[in-house]
Amino acid sequence: MMSPIETATLEKLKNGDLDSFNEIYFQYSPKIYIRLIKLVKDPTIAEEILQDVFTKIWLNREKIEPTSGFVSFLNHISDNLAMDFFRKVQRDKALQLEIWASAIELYYHTEEAVFLKDTRDILSKAIDSLSPKRKQILLLSKFQEKSYKEIADELGISVSTVSNQLVSALKDIKEYIHKNYRNDYIISFLAAFLFKL
User: Fold this and answer.
1) pLDDT tens-digit series, residues 122-140
2) Rounded to 5 degrees, what are φ and ψ at 161?
3) Among the four 47, 149, 165, 174, which has the fewest Cβ within 10 Å?
4) Is 38 exposed, middle or buried (0-12, 13-18, 19+ CB in 10 A)?
């Protein structure tokens, strides 16, 4: 529950008062910083996200409800920005893998290039072995980077169904690879690709 003073400060912030914004920043930033440190485990990144949180608070100040819900509003923004950071990290990992794979294909000769082609072929065959529904969900999630909610809305199914089908698809692919290929290096390469993407 907000005190009358906090409510008045938030009301002024909502109306664009910069001094009130500074008051809110100094009051809440330590708690948000600790929350972000627990999530991202890196002080520099936590500090960067913290600045983004309060930039968003300022830009979205008209949405503030001074009498209730401000802490939840603040936490929601900080959690969303932390998730955006993790998504960016995952995309960067995928990009690094793509660059690395391209470098192998471009700069190394037969054995390495053949290995890369084989792993791509194996992955393609493993995905093709899935049921149509699981294959569709996997491609939407892993290769089009759609959220569970976006997939659920697009396919007219529940988010939990999307999650369950994706878990089953990854399990099916892993089993397919183990059943049909005995090369441990290929298996570990594909597992890394699928489960860290």
Assistant:
1) 777 888 888 888 888 888 8
2) -65, -40
3) 149
4) exposed
**Cβ–Cβ < 8 Å for 57, 82:** no
pTM: 0.46
Q: What is the pLDDT of residues 40-64, one digit of tens each?
A: 777 888 888 889 998 988 988 888 8
Determine the Cα–Cα distance for residues 51 and 79; give it in Å rounded to an integer.
13
Q: Which two tokens stand for residue 50?
A: 């913290």
Residue tagged 């700069």 (tokens) = 107
* pLDDT given at position 141: 81
Output the six-digit token pair for 117. 């082609």
Residue labelled with tokens 């890369």: 116
Task: From residue 182, give the alpha-carbon distance in Å to each of 79, 91, 164, 170.
Answer: 42, 29, 28, 18
Residue with tokens 């995309």: 91
- E strands, the chain, are none
Look up tokens 């003073």; give the residue: 5
